[in-house]
Amino acid sequence: MRAIVLEKLYDWSKIPYQKFLKKNNAWNIQIATLLDYPKGTLGNSLGIFITKHNFELQAKLESHDVFHVLTNTGITVPEEISMQFYLLGNGKRSLYLFSVVFLGLLLYPDYFKVFKKAYYKGGKALQFHQLNFLRMLHLPVQKIKTTFLIS
């Protein structure tokens, strides 16, 4: 039930968030183009992630899926919340992030230790949440993870 609540809140908030709060430009790239990048690159890995989970690229929200790829975070609701804690630890600040963190703690108090661990892991990594990932699609994922100490 709690997962359904968060998923509905996400569905209701996604379009206003994209339209009014996200100031970056959409990438305007196709999944097939991502899959054409060499194996092991961020572009190819992102394309595989999106295809594997039967997702579509969300305009202006492309970095969210990059965070999944770089942090090896799954797509369950607790994993999504955990990734937001990781990003909070990494220095990311946004209304969306604070909302997810607050609601995550409220609805998933049994995952507190998991969230806390993710927060500290994010704090140990060099700040990467603000990078222009569109310009990094050609880079090997492992090089990005090593450079920014992403575990």
TrEMBL record:
**What UniProt keywords apply to this chain's record, in alphabetical order?**
Membrane, Transmembrane, Transmembrane helix
Q: Transmembrane segments in this chain: where?
A: 95-112
Top-level taxon in the UniProt lineage: Bacteria
Q: What is this protein called?
A: Coenzyme Q (Ubiquinone) biosynthesis protein Coq4
